Amino acid sequence: MIGELSLDLTFTSRDSVNMKLRNILDEATDKWGVKVNRVELQEIQPPEEIRNAMEKQMRAERDKRAKILTAEGEREYQIRVAEGERQAKITRR
Q1: In the Cβ-directed half-sphere of 25, how many Cα atoms lie within 13 Å?
Q2: Contacts of 19 (CB under 8 A, 6+ apart)
Q3: Tens of pLDDT, residues 12-31
Q4: Can you tell me the distance from the alpha carbon of 79 to that of 24, in angstroms, rounded to the nearest whole number?
Q5: What is the 3-state secondary structure (H, E, C) of the chain?
Q6: pLDDT value of residue 3
Q7: Longest Cα–Cα distance in the chain
Q8: Which of 12, 39, 47, 61 could make an S-S bridge to 22, C-beta 3.0–4.6 Å?
């Protein structure tokens, strides 16, 4: 059933949603002799509260990636400084 899909899954799997919609409509119209050949989901407009939640989630993901990149950069910097100091000690000997 379509109501069971999460919003994220709905955005990423339109073909699946379209197929489910077509099957549901085809079953409902079969008794009238109507065959549904194609259904296309063109636009999804979630409620404001869901859009806000999605924006917060995207912002949190971006912040997380930025923090990870910053930490990786700092780690790389520390490694290079330590390697430079080690090389300097070897050279001074």
Answers
A1: 13
A2: none
A3: 677 788 888 888 998 889 88
A4: 60
A5: CHHHCCHHHHHHCHHHHHHHHHHHHHHHHHCCCCCCCCCCCCCCCCCHHHHHHHHHHHHHHHHHHHHHHHHHHHHHHHHHHHHHHHHHHHHHC
A6: 45
A7: 94
A8: 39
pLDDT digits (tens, 9 = 90+) for 32-87: 998 888 887 777 788 898 889 888 988 999 999 999 999 999 999 999 999 999 99
Residue 30 and residue 33: Cα distance in Å, rounded? 5
Angstrom distance (rounded) from CA 18 to CA 13: 9
Residue 7 to residue 41: CA distance in whole angstroms: 14
Dihedral of CA atoms 41, 42, 45, 51 in degrees, nearest 10, equals 100
